[in-house]
Amino acid sequence: MKWRIDPDLTLPLHQQVEKIIRTLVEKPEYQSGLMFPKEVDIANELGIARNTVRTAIAKLVQEGILVRKKGVGTMVVRKKLLTRLDHWFSFTKEMEEKGRKIINYRLEVKLVKAPPELAEIFHIKPDTRVVEITRLRGDEEKPLLLSISWFHPRTKVQIEQDFTRPLYKVLEEENNVYVTLSREDISAIAATNDLAENLQIKPGDPILTRNRTVYSSDGQIVEYNQVFYRGDGISYSVEIGR
Amino acid sequence: MKWRIDPDLTLPLHQQVEKIIRTLVEKPEYQSGLMFPKEVDIANELGIARNTVRTAIAKLVQEGILVRKKGVGTMVVRKKLLTRLDHWFSFTKEMEEKGRKIINYRLEVKLVKAPPELAEIFHIKPDTRVVEITRLRGDEEKPLLLSISWFHPRTKVQIEQDFTRPLYKVLEEENNVYVTLSREDISAIAATNDLAENLQIKPGDPILTRNRTVYSSDGQIVEYNQVFYRGDGISYSVEIGR
DNA sequence: TCATAAAATATGTTTAAACATACTGAAAAT
DNA sequence: ATTTTCAGTATGTTTAAACATATTTTATGA
Question: The pTM is what?
């Protein structure tokens, strides 16, 4: 084979192996059911311990990308199952996949005093200033969602930053924040006057709301996000692994 | 301390440790921020290798129950954050946590011919007979949700089975089906006459619907489930890891 | 031929040990 | 008083090796 590990690199071996496997997995052979190389072989090939390969594989198994069976071997889970995984954080991507053009009807970034409920969620003192982003987005025809985000002061998000790019990329590249987990609360409500006006529907029409708390890799709260979807315009897809 | 491992038990050590930690984690001391025992101590205490303890802890970290920091230690993630983890498959559990008693207003199990849309989802011939379960559930006051499930013929679900128990347990224990992944589609709609009657609301009232396709560990479709939640009565929570 | 037993396979479990690295806090130097 | 240095602490990384167990394949015997 052709992959190698780089002993000089600071990145831990098992993470390098993880990366290698992630690209390997994409190969069509494996997508169509070919048995994945056995861990002993991979270890020998790369000249590292079997155990190290195991930790890498374990991670991928955890993510549902690989499946293993004692005495049999390792297989790649069919790609179909994996679509949309990894996409939950990007509305833009989701819409683009459906072939719809996204229009930002409004994008507002401002510094506001945290209301009590938000302060409680963020574990900060009320009236602490936080960055608030309001987005009204949709397709050519009509607005589809109203989104309001607040960022924890810890993230050091600034109002000058460019929020037209995908949010998680901005956070990673500019703020060194790595988003890993989101906890969400979804419910259906009737549109208030304010919401109805924004989303160009009638008051009382069904609206899908999603309250999302986003956590970084170290378990700390990054963002609190509230979205109101037009009930007719969109359906929200999630994918959950046990 | 007082916990022990049982060397005779067939259960692997690290799984036993995992169990021990799971109960440990519940202790109020740890809920309120006390540092978790260090892995070396746990290993010594139980008389097993540090590595074994590590694999157990790693699992819990993965689940977001523990957080570790190099040079510092291990901490339990605040309980509040954990509610509902792992519970997406059990409505009963979710409600019980809120201290509400669940009432089954209706439970219907019957064999029906698969309508075309379902046949398409299941990749089976239309009119193939499938088991359909209809549930109308709620609390003492009112029905909160109407759920309709269909099971793929492959699962060999029989109408005689006891569906009053948690569904995923029935599938595991009686049908040898291990549910691992679900793909969901959530949207808000206005209640139809039929739905309004069932859920005791007015036609046009907001309803949260969820279409869920449930997959087993080998990636095959197990169940297709449609749920209609009263918009006022409930909010639906999910948790998504990247 | 067919069922059964044995061997080969591949992952799963567990231990032990050495070294790396991030963080904390105390001691030393400025 | 403040910064710098250094030792201590707890987790992170990696290796090596032995044995366990589930599965498949091969060989064996009725």
Answer: 0.46
